[in-house]
Amino acid sequence: MAVCSAYTIQSLNSTKTHLGFRQKQVILYTPIKKQSTITCSVSDKTVVIGLAADSGCGKSTFMRRLTSVFGGAAEPPRGGNPDSNTLISDTTTVICLDDYHSLDRTGRKEKGVKALKEGVAVEKPIYNHVTGLLDPPELIKPPKILVIEGLHPMYDARVRDLLDFSIYLDISNEVKFAWKIQRDMAERGHSLESIKASIEARKPDFDAYIDPQKQYADAVIEVLPTQLIPGDNEGKVLRVKLIMKEGTKYFSPVYLFDEGSTITWIPCGRKLTCSYPGIKFSYGPDTYYGHEVSVLEMDGQFDRLDELIYVESHLSNISTKFYGEVTQQMLKHADFPGSNNGTGLFQTIIGLKIRDLYEIIASKAATPLQATKA
Amino acid sequence: MAVCSAYTIQSLNSTKTHLGFRQKQVILYTPIKKQSTITCSVSDKTVVIGLAADSGCGKSTFMRRLTSVFGGAAEPPRGGNPDSNTLISDTTTVICLDDYHSLDRTGRKEKGVKALKEGVAVEKPIYNHVTGLLDPPELIKPPKILVIEGLHPMYDARVRDLLDFSIYLDISNEVKFAWKIQRDMAERGHSLESIKASIEARKPDFDAYIDPQKQYADAVIEVLPTQLIPGDNEGKVLRVKLIMKEGTKYFSPVYLFDEGSTITWIPCGRKLTCSYPGIKFSYGPDTYYGHEVSVLEMDGQFDRLDELIYVESHLSNISTKFYGEVTQQMLKHADFPGSNNGTGLFQTIIGLKIRDLYEIIASKAATPLQATKA
């Protein structure tokens, strides 16, 4: 049901009671603090996902995998500011929180996210990377799934508390360095010294504001050098860990063979042959910043389709809707970075887990309160 | 159908044709080489199992576990010579081939086993350990399952070729030494020096005639010191390997989680708690004396029933007839040595695999030739 009307900010607190149903508004949380409410009821609750990572760590690839799971590609708002980082698909809107000032003390981020979560559209600032100033804001309507991504969407406890699920992409220093060399030295002609200097220069901020967020994440994707090739520092073959917090609402960790025990698995053998250096999985319980977690690790890479489907068929709790859905998703985006290793596999799986979580929340929202109490 | 009559040795070759069904005789292969035939047709083919190991390595415990799988305890022949090593149960007869001279060149062992395999009773010599001479022989009727055990039942290729399945118990020197200290020093008051000397004295014969048999075995149970306790040499906690030859007729190796891949599994975790030093399983393909094998390894020991049933429930291809049969068998004989570790577990499983193999052979023998060709 869509009911649209106009209210002043004063009427906000009384809407629920005097209308008898959830009436939603647009609140404009722009930097100039002009606040007014506009309109419109929406039917579903917005599920809010946080994704934090340093720059150049694969957030946009992850977002493309995530929105693909829900069907339909995510695109920038039509006719919008070309500097917008926002991506919109049928179900999902991805906004970049870096457009808000990182040390925002006025709670604009929190209020904006809170409004969207409650089904209220907001106007979001757009940071212009060329001028260094804020462009006119863009209107963000409440989607089914709102992903807030950026360098520190989980840094502020008030924003963090609004997240239904949070993810941190943790690229180890060795791999970050190897990737930067590949991109900045081989492709852009930077010197090794300047790459080292730029990493060093960013380190204090990274250590203070980005890295600490991983302790709050419900899932961390940690990318490390392979252990299958002794002394490897190329950063081409990767060892990737999916660290999943236990006890997260509507999220049950993926497991390998036997939930809660400790396992290593080299699938390459009599039934499946793999090329050098092979593939090795590990799984088991662990603790991470004092939380109970389950960790699934993949070292190595897929060379062929049969390897991918074989691995998928032995993982449990991956929230697929049909046999081979992970493989299908990864093949669909075979050109995305990491499609042949644990980063692609785990991003895809987390996408499926988020779909699951969204569907549980949506079904609960559709159920009368009486029934959910049982 | 039982048809009994007497034949001279000369009539042996023609019995099958002139009677129209399988007519079986008793051939007396005694050391004095007096040969005559006596009687009786039996319906089933005898399945012949070989079990080789050094003395003091647990052959008799294994035999008790094996016969228990078929139901009913194995006992010495009633009214027989107390020096007899023979054990008889409803289905199984265990004879000790050590009663034949180890360097028997006349083929008496082979002929005796061949006769039993063909359903013909034999007279078996009994070596008197006190006099060092041979006592009057005992009559062995062809059982459903004949187990020939001893120091070298697989040494002679002619005997080996008669085996439907063969097992070698391979106790590593470290564990053998620890066991001998426990038994001969702690219980019998021997000195450490005399134990070392006795092991050394037996070594040339062991290396020449006993140890080489393991290359021919379809299954080897190898007993090693634990790796869970660094530097352990007590020999109480054991690491036990079950090495299973691939391609053995009517025998499909046990596996853990995923057949043909390489796996380690520590079942102790969130669902199962274990006391120190825990339990660790390994599984995977390997080669053993040039043969393809699958190896299942258990390090550690069971403290409680739930550990045993949990482990059993995660093993595949164990040839049980109902859920928990391995656990039931092990609990039934909880007082046998090795009931809390891999020796008991793997002996029990091999017992079940032999029952399976026997049933397949028996069902094939009962099926008309036309049908088995399909």
Can you walk me through this structure?
- Chains A, B: It is an enzyme of class 2 (transferase).
- Chains A, B: Residues 111-229 form the Phosphoribulokinase/uridine kinase domain.
- Chains A, B: It comes from Actinidia rufa.
- Chains A, B: Keywords: ATP-binding, Calvin cycle, Chloroplast, Disulfide bond, Kinase, Nucleotide-binding, Photosynthesis, Plastid, Transferase, Transit peptide.
- 2 copies of one chain form a homodimer.
- By secondary structure, chain A is of the alpha/beta class.
- The first copy, chain A, has 2 domains: 44-168, Rossmann fold (3-Layer(aba) Sandwich), CATH 3.40.50; 218-363, no CATH class.
- Helices cover 30% and strands 22% of the residues of chain A.
- The first copy, chain A, is built from 10 helices and 14 strands.
- Chain A has helices spanning 15-19, 59-69, 108-117, 157-160, 173-187, 192-210, 305-314, 325-332, 342-366, 369-373, and strands at 47-53, 87-88, 92-96, 122-127, 134-140, 145-150, 165-171, 219-225, 238-245, 255-256, 262-266, 279-288, 291-300, 315-316.
- In chain A, the strands form 3 sheets. In chain A, strands 2-3-6-1-7-8-9-13-12-11 form a 10-stranded mixed beta sheet. In chain A, strands 4-5 form a two-stranded antiparallel sheet.
- In chain A, helix 2 (59-69) crosses helix 9 (342-366), helix 5 (173-187) packs across helix 6 and helix 8 (325-332) crosses helix 9.
- The longest helix of chain A is centred in the C-terminal third of the chain and has 25 residues, at 342-366.
- Chain A is globular.
- The interface between A and B is medium-sized, with 19 and 19 residues.
